[in-house]
Structures are given as C-alpha cells and as structure tokens.
Amino acid sequence: MTEKRESYLSWDDYFMGVALLSAQRSKDPSTQVGACIVSQNKRIVGVGYNGFPTGCSDDALPWSREGDFLETKYPFVVHAELNAILNSTKQLQNCTIFVALFPCNECAKAIIQSGIIEIVYLSDKYADSPAVKASKRMLDAAGVVYRKIKPTQESITINF
Question: What predicted TM-score, i.e. pTM, was given to this entire model?
C-alpha cells in the first residue's frame, strides 16, 4: 500500500499562499498585498488585492507614496481586505481572513462589519502606526481574534 505524501501544505500555508498569489495581481509599484477569506468549512469565499477601483485607469491615477495627498495613491487605492470582502461569494459571518499585511483601521471596520471573526497575517511592519493601533483597539473591542502565521514551509513554488 502506498503511503500519503508528507510534505503537503497546511491549511494556514495554503490560504496564505492564495493571499500572496493574489497580491501578485497588484499594479502598485511599492506595496503588493493580497487577502483570502475562508469559511469555517475551509472554503475560499473571497480574494482580493490592493488596487484602484474598477473602471479607474491604472495610468490616470497616481501611484506615489509622498507629496500632496491628491497626488498620492492613498485616496484612490482599495485595500486587499476590502476588495476580498466586496468580491465575496457568500455571507462572511464566522469567516477567517488571511492577509499579507496587518489590516489598517479602515479595513478593520469592514472586517468587523462583515462578521469575520479571525485575522491571520504575515507581517505587522506598521504595528507602531496610529492606523494599526486604532485597528487593534477596534478588533479587540469587537472580539475579532488575530494571529501571526507560523508557516510550516519556507517557500511555495508554482511552475507553469
């Protein structure tokens, strides 16, 4: 009898891998973030990445990080978490969101309002920013659990 393969992906690695693959769709030259929303029975119900709203030209709006507010990407970019929520195929009550970067305060509001109960994140590099501090304050108040992923794989390779 043949034994099962031992080096398969854990659920956490699999869903974070989907989030990271989604991030590769982002046209943002400085930051690519992806998100993957998963139901309690391990079904993907939404994915998203950071980018401009549908119908807004990627060439007509700015990608800058610095300068006058209206000459930067910040008033125009839809974050990966919100895109995943908006792209979802079902109610998100009791779902988990896997995201490359810890959610900002605006995304935390959408996560809470949608009924997502857990956030699994890869990086929290902006932990000291007011936006992430506000995010954690709201998530804690709403009882949304968040945890940093501990990958069991160092990398995932996709070949075409």
Answer: 0.94
Q: How confident is the model at residue 12 (pLDDT cuts 50, 70, 90)?
A: very high
State the average pLDDT over residues 106-113.
Answer: 98
Instruction: Determine whether 106 is an active site residue.
Output: no
Q: Which of 6, 66, 71, 81 is catalytic?
A: 81
Give 101's strand partners: 123
Q: Provide the mean pLDDT of the chain.
A: 96
